[in-house]
Write a structure and sequence with these properties.
With 392 residues, the protein is α/β, with parallel strands linked by helices. The chain is built from 15 helices and 14 strands. Helix content is 41%, strand content 13%. It binds pyridoxal-5'-phosphate.
Amino acid sequence: MNKIFYYGRQSIFDEDISAVSDVLKSDFITQGPNAQKFENELSNFFGSKYATVVANGTAGLHLIALALGWKEGDIVITSPITFLASANCAIYAGANVDFVDINEKSYTIDPNKLEDKVKTYLSKNKKIKAVVAVDYAGHPCDWKALNSLKNKYDFQLVNDFCHALGAEYDNDIQYAVKYADAVNLSFHPVKHITTGEGGAILTNDEFLDKKVKILRTHGMTKDESILEKNDGPWYYEMHEPGFNYRITDFQCALGISQLKKLNKFLEQRRFIASFYNRCFKDDKRFIIPHVADNVKHAYHIYPLQIKFDELQIDKKEFYYRLKEKGVVFQVHYIPVHLQPFYRKKFGFKEGDFPNAELFYKREISIPIYPSLLEEDLFYISDAIKSTLDKMQ
Ligand SMILES: Cc1ncc(COP(=O)(O)O)c(C=O)c1O
């Protein structure tokens, strides 16, 4: 086989291309009517009162951080097993970042360990400001536990939901905004639906929604209720500097067209995951992703653990050998606390979050995207097993 299989890729169809080209021929190509329509459709799908589309998921997290009022000295907690942006957004706002280890089954932030961390801060007379919980790989966090901690200790809760579009928690596809103050989405090409680059913020909080919408466009407002004066229809004011985090209308047309296919994409991802589950579950060298009873996984990623440590196999060597067969895995993630920036700034070190560190050593993200064929899945799983066989 001379195909190359990466861990993720977009699925673009003719109707997606027509939707984009229609907008390119229209009057609006930057933020216009399709942005508004995409926002409405995201709100409907995910059950939020408000939605704001933005340039990318990182911009979304940045705006959430500012709208939630994070500032210097605040403590924001996230999981070490996430993309850099889940932690960096707190840094952008001048806050301090701390981490809480993952639960070894769900790979999401462990609520018991979070409570220990909150109590440790309280014993030093410090209160945490917010938790950015990540529905890693597409498996929702333990949101009921997180919500009860939020109520008990009074902190803000953000769902970094970039992996979990279409996941279900207690049979509810609209769970994200029910538990979190703000929910962040990304439409990067490897995600469930794509706009090239793009993201969105969902919330039920009107104040938060207004704030992120103003900050998305330089902090400019024409809202009569807050203008200090009004020189005429051209007039705007800026009360706080914002950014240009807008997304174009042709990207939003792509998003609208892609959202129509989300349920189909989810079905295909779940089919692939169940194929891999069957292939790897009875082989002691692997650990397949666990799914909690009240969860329907969205499988943005299929995180397969291989016990490289016990098998005494070098992961790097395995990577190169598998790549020779056209299967190129990715690793999600290098624990964020071990990044030089976080080590130097906050003194994190190896051993701080053992579950995350062991997970990093074992995890490989194997190809999962809708256009994979069943013959591809046989090929990929066989390549993984036979490469391991040869290295043992
Ligand atoms: C968990 C998580 N948060 C945030 C982001 C940032 O999204 P974007 O790439 O759209 O900026 C990503 C994207 O990879 C992500 O996976």
